[in-house]
């Protein structure tokens, strides 16, 4: 029973290794499968057809040998093969109806006994012979399928691979010819020199093209171009065709290249003495002036001698006429005859270059506008208005004679006033493809693509990436939707290669361009799948055994005899010589005297008769060795090696059972007691850089491929991290990218993938992710550069512009025009390459900014009619005092002098909201204040009192706010869920966060793929989970999601603090802040040493990210800068406060996060509490402080990042100096305030800049 059990277990293991009981072998382009399932002949044939083949056709002795071996592997039943004589009795054919040219019938067969019409391999005849059997009997069967050699590496063909039955062939595309069996070479059509007349031949695929020299045309440049064909010669001229030219022969009287010009006989000026020449056809005529005669007017007439004049005083004959003269002191009158007294200025006898003023006895010279009189008193010189700042040009001044002209820099155009400039819109029609949105830049533009599309102009469609297949492997892809390009791919390894990093079962590219490995998005990789790598198979398995013998001999003196006899006994085993490429070796034979055998992991058997424990144990090792070269050892060969050891195992088992494995030692019998033989295993010696694999029938070392390294702690192949690469297999670490470059995704396999250029210092400057099938990179904190994030330079002042010009074309690649001072808008009023932020004279009008009442516009006279400190040339109300220059409608006319400040068509005296456009003039409570600007639209409050400055009138507020979002329950459209934005998309009075159907389209939000846009059909063409009507702009606010800071909120789209509110936390206006807004509201400057105060933006936020740059632009003072978030009133807000140094008044250096919850509101108590570094009951609560108490430094840029998740009460603050993280609060938990407005804060600190401000809604609640 023990032997039977061992055999059964072994067979189960073998069958499991062969794949659910089927044995598969390949031969000469076919694959054979021995199916161990009983089927009749027709069922067997149908099963084989389902595999893509048929019952085996045995047409050669090689095929016969293969099917015999396969049948012998499971010799339990007959096997059907694919021949029968059912069509014509006695005529045997294969299932493809071909006759049997080869057979192996048993003698006397086929005999058709009992309608035996189907062929089979007979078990009784060792499967060597065939027998005809009744077709309805059930048997095992052998299938044969053609191997498609073209499916792997295209069969090795350069171009086309055609699979044939049992083989394949290669062909070449048109324009190529075959070289050898697989290679294709291009046919050079230029080799016959087809181009004539000096033409240049360019070889093309299956064709050629002639580039002709000037003057020739035609396919082969064979035709001279007849330049005379257009009849260029005019006025009867004759055209002569030349090579690449022509010549006109003109008729008399005509000339010119095309005889277009009449020959002007007057050109030689034949008429003299002022005679007028009249050109005639091929002749001329002279019309003489009075006083002259002759053909050419060459003869003078003397009018004085012949009394032909009428001069009042004197006559002087002149050539061709006469002149009248006057006596001294007289001037000839305009009639040329009479005389009058001389006026030197009137008669131009003064020598003045420009103007003359007559005086008694003399005259004075003068000059016109734009000129100055020279020292000689007569001549004038041009005044250079540009050099003397007398021009008023905004950008470029060009001096002209007697004046000047204004111009503009590249990318700008001159306005109608002839002096100012406007940015030129570079977004021409069709600038972006495939529905992309064009964004204008400075002499450039960029495109924001609809989801899935990519490229500089959105020209690349989704899923168009042609990713290379795995190294040493292949891929099979299928497009599932031609309209969107969606596809799926599977990958595989060729030859004896394997994946060292486990691939997905299926890779899918969806319509939005996103790649997925199974259901996981593919991010941070150069391509979706891993590479295949080499397997190294050892060819030397072994097994260890021991046999315990009963014997009464003296073991100690007979050891050599025992070893010799055991070796001889082993050599007599037929299985010890398996043949072929495999040999076996008996090794390490050793004898231990006395005692019972030791137990090793193995199956033990032996005699069941109880015997004495005296005797000895023979221990040994058996190895199976192949003569194949290491690279030729396959899984099949390893299996055969294991089988060779199994044969020895079974034969020893059989010998023991039949008492044929006993030893005779010097005439005495030594009988087997027990036998222990371990399982066969391979000698596997993998090196570092390789993974090891071993099971019952195979073992190998697997190389970690290029792009990975062997993590010895986890014994896995891991991708090289960002910033490193590995171009060699079998490595335990990765190589650093060269200086100033960085690999931007894990798994870089070559140095060329170190593409991110980092200029300025050795550090990580860029981070990347694969998003929707596209590599998306951005410069890290402390760096700035190209929009694609692959070229980044140090940005010391953290304003988004690098310290040096970078080798890229985006606007943000240009060198910062104000190094060391944040100026995210790069404003440069005078165009002198120095940004306004560091230019003492921004408009270059000779007045420094501090004394210039129009620092951004040239005004040499500094006129200020209304004495409001703003010069007339830049004052939007030059005769009305308005220091703040507020201009609600942005029409250039300040609110104080604009009769319709909000441009809604209703004059301010009749407008119930003069500063908020409201054409309807709704006023629900009838208090004269329009609903859109009424802080209590349903309760009359003409005074609009709002003492706590929460934008809700005191008349309608209460103290109950259940969800702590800053909106009292009486006004909150979702009172139990924080929603400070109060979004109510369908205007049904129920806020979106507590409305099951936000857009009111009857489709509940949890299944609505356009939650904020009514869409009854819920169509989603690309299957990305976002409905068609809201794809690309989820909230339909007109701002693409890629540019929208809150893509799921229709009320917030961009960061802009210009519509601001100020809050003086000291409760007075004695020492207020002075705020300035730049770069379209994303940069704020506060210039004076002031009371504690805030400036707030208009928007309300819940979950958000808030980023910006701090900069103290002075060497004076050491007090507070910071920002506020979740502002709900002037008594309730979160505060990030940062002081440079501690002081004796309780001020503390370092960053602090505080909850301001004041019982008094703005005033002295709150001011003192904000100054102190400790918690003040009734005023402030200290949530977190920097234990290192690092203070800010003068003229140093710091970048902050805040995450606030109001739904879980989480706050996280980080602060960077350059790319160095200097402060990290960790996760701070506080749910006191759950939404509100954002702003910036300063206290007793002048010249503070908050630059490159970025706000973004974020609904993902998680640890920061």
**Biggest sheet descriptor:** 8 strands, mixed
Q: Provide the gyration radius in Å.
A: 50 Å
Principal-axes geometry comes out as extended
The number of helical segments is 6
Instruction: Give the distance, in angstroms, between the N- and C-terminal Cα atoms.
Output: 66 Å
The average pLDDT score comes to: 86
- The CATH topology of the domain at 1061-1257 corresponds to Jelly Rolls
State which percent range the strand residues make up: 25-35%
Care to describe what's here?
The protein is mainly β and 1264 residues long. Among the domains are: 23-147, Roll (Mannose-Binding Protein A, Chain A); 227-262, Laminin; 344-382, Ribbon (Laminin), CATH 2.10.25; 384-419, no CATH class; 690-756, Tumor Necrosis Factor Receptor, subunit A, domain 2 (Ribbon), CATH 2.10.50; 1061-1257, Jelly Rolls (Sandwich). The protein contains six helices and 79 strands. It is extended. Residues 27-144 form the C-type lectin domain. One of its GO terms (cellular component) is extracellular region. Keywords: Calcium, Cell adhesion, Disulfide bond, EGF-like domain, Glycoprotein, Repeat, Signal.
């Amino acid at each position: 029973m023990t032997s039977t059990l061992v055999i059964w277990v072994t067979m189960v293991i073998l069958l499991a290794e062969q794949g659910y009981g089927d044995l598969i072998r390949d031969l000469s382009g076919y694959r054979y499968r021995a199916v161990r399932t009983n089927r009749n002949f027709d069922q067997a044939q149908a099963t084989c057809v389902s595999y893509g083949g048929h019952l085996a056709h045995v047409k050669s002795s090689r095929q016969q040998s293969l099917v015999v071996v396969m049948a012998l592997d499971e010799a339990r039943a007959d096997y059907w093969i694919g021949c029968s004589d059912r069509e014509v009795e006695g005529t045997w054919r294969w299932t493809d109806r071909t006759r049997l040219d080869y057979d192996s019938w048993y003698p006397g067969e086929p005999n058709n006994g009992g309608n035996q019409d189907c062929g089979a391999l007979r078990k009784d005849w060792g499967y060597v012979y065939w027998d005809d059997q009744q077709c309805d009997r059930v048997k095992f069967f052998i299938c044969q399928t053609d191997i498609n050699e073209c499916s792997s590496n295209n069969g090795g063909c350069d171009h086309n691979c055609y699979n044939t039955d049992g083989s394949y062939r290669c062909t070449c595309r048109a324009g190529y010819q075959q070289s050898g069996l697989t290679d294709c070479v291009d046919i050079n059509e230029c080799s016959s020199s087809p181009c004539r007349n000096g033409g240049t031949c360019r070889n093309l695929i299956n064709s050629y093209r002639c580039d002709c020299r000037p003057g020739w045309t035609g396919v082969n440049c064979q035709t001279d171009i007849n330049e005379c064909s257009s009849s260029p010669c005019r006025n009867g001229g004759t055209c002569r065709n030349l090579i690449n030219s022509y010549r006109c022969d003109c008729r008399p009287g005509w000339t010119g290249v095309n005889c277009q010009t009449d020959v002007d006989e007057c050109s030689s000026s034949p008429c003299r003495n002022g005679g007028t020449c009249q050109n005639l056809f091929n002749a001329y005529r002279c019309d003489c002036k009075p006083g002259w005669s002759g053909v050419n007017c060459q003869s003078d007439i003397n009018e004085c001698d012949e009394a032909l004049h009428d001069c009042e005083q004197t006559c002087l004959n002149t050539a061709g006429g006469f002149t009248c003269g006057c006596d001294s002191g007289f001037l000839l009158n305009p009639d040329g005859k009479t005389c009058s007294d001389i006026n030197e200025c009137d008669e131009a006898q003064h020598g003045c270059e420009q103007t003359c003023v007559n005086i008694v006895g003399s005259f004075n010279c003068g000059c016109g506008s734009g000129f100055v009189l020279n020292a000689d008193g007569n001549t004038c010189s041009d005044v250079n208005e540009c050099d003397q700042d007398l021009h008023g040009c905004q950008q470029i001044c060009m001096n002209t004679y007697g004046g000047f002209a204004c111009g503009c820099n590249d990318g700008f155009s001159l306005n109608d006033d002839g002096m100012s400039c406007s940015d030129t819109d570079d977004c021409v029609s069709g600038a972006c493809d495939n529905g992309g949105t064009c964004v204008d830049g400075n002499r450039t533009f960029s495109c924001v693509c609809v989801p899935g599309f990519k490229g500089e102009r959105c020209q690349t469609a989704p899923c168009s990436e042609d990713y290379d297949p795995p190294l040493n492997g292949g891929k099979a892809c299928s497009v599932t939707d031609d309209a969107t390009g969606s596809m799926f791919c599977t990958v595989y390894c060729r030859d004896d290669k394997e994946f060292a990093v486990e691939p997905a079962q299926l890779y899918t590219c969806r319509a939005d361009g996103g790649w997925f490995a199974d259901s996981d998005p593919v991010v941070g990789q150069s391509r979706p799948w891993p590479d295949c790598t080499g397997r190294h198979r050892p060819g030397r398995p072994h097994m260890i055994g021991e046999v315990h013998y009963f014997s009464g001999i003296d073991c100690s003196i007979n050891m050599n005899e025992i070893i010799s006899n055991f070796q001889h006994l082993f050599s007599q085993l037929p299985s010890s010589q398996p043949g072929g490429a495999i040999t076996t070796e008996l090794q390490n034979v050793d004898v231990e005297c006395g005692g019972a055998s030791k137990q090793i992991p193995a199956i033990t058997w032996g005699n069941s008769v109880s015997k004495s424990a005296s005797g000895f144990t023979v221990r040994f090792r058996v190895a199976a060795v192949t003569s194949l070269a290491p690279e030729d050892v396959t899984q099949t060969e390893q299996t055969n090696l294991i089988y060779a050891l199994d044969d020895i195992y079974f034969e020893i088992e059989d010998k023991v059972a039949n008492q044929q494995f006993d030893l005779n030692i010097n005439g005495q019998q030594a009988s087997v007691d027990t036998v222990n033989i371990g399982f066969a295993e391979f000698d596997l010696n993998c090196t570092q850089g390789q993974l090891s694999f071993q099971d019952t029938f195979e073992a190998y070392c697997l190389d970690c491929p290029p792009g990975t390294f062997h993590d010895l702690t986890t014994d896995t192949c891991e991708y090289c991290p960002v910033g490193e690469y590995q171009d060699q297999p079998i490595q335990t670490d990765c190589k650093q990218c060269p200086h100033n470059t960085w690999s931007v995704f894990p798994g870089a396999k070559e140095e060329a993938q170190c593409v991110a250029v980092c200029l300025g210092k050795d550090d990580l400057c860029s981070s990347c992710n694969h998003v929707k099938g596209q590599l998306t990179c951005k410069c890290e904190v402390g760096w700035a550069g190209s929009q694609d994030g692959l070229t980044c330079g140090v940005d010391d002042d953290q304003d988004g512009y690098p310290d040096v010009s970078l080798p890229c074309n985006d606007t943000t690649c240009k060198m910062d025009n104000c190094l060391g001072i944040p100026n995210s808008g790069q404003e440069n009023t005078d165009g002198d390459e120095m940004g306004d932020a560091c230019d003492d004279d921004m408009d270059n009008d000779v007045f420094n900014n501090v004394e210039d009442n129009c620092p951004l516009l040239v005004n040499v006279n500094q006129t200020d009619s209304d004495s409001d400190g703003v010069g007339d040339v830049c004052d939007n109300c030059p005769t009305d005092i308005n220091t703040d220059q507020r201009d609600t409608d942005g029409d250039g006319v300040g609110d104080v002098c604009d009769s319709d400040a909000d441009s809604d068509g209703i004059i301010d005296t009749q407008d119930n909201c003069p500063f908020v456009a409201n054409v309807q003039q709704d006023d629900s409570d009838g208090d004269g204040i329009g609903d859109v600007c009424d802080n209590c639209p349903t309760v009359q409050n003409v005074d609009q009192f709002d003492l706590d400055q929460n934008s809700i009138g005191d008349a309608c507020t209460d103290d109950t706010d259940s969800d702590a979002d800053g909106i009292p329950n009486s006004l909150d459209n979702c009172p139990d869920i924080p929603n400070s934005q109060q979004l109510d998309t369908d205007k049904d009075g129920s806020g979106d966060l507590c409305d099951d159907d936000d857009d009111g389209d009857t489709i509940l939000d949890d299944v609505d793929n356009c939650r904020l846009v009514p869409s009854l059909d819920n169509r989603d063409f690309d299957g990305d989970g976002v409905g068609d009507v809201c794809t690309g702009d989820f909230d339909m606010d007109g701002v693409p999601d890629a540019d929208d800071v809150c893509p799921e909120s229709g009320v917030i789209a961009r960061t802009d603090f210009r519509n601001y509110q100020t809050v003086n936390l000291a409760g007075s206006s004695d020492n207020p802040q002075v705020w300035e807004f730049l770069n379209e509201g994303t940069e704020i400057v506060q210039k004076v040493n002031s009371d504690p105060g805030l400036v707030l933006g208009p928007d309300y936020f819940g979950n958000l990210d808030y980023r910006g740059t701090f900069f103290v632009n002075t060497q004076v003072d050491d007090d507070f800068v910071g920002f506020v978030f979740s502002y709900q009133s002037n008594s309730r807000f979160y505060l990030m406060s940062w002081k440079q140094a501690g002081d004796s008044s309780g001020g503390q250096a370092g960053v602090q996060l505080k909850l301001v919850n004041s019982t008094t509101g703005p005033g002295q108590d709150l001011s003192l509490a904000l100054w102190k570094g400790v918690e003040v009951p009734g005023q402030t609560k200290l949530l977190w402080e920097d234990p290192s108490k690092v203070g800010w430094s003068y003229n140093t840029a710091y970048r902050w990042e805040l995450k606030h998740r109001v739904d879980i009460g989480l706050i996280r603050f980080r602060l960077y100096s350059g790319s160095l993280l200097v402060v990290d609060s960790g996760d701070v938990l506080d749910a006191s305030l759950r939404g509100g407005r954002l702003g910036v804060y300063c206290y007793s600190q002048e010249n503070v800049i908050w630059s490159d401000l970025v706000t973004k809604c974020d609904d993902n609640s998680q640890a920061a």
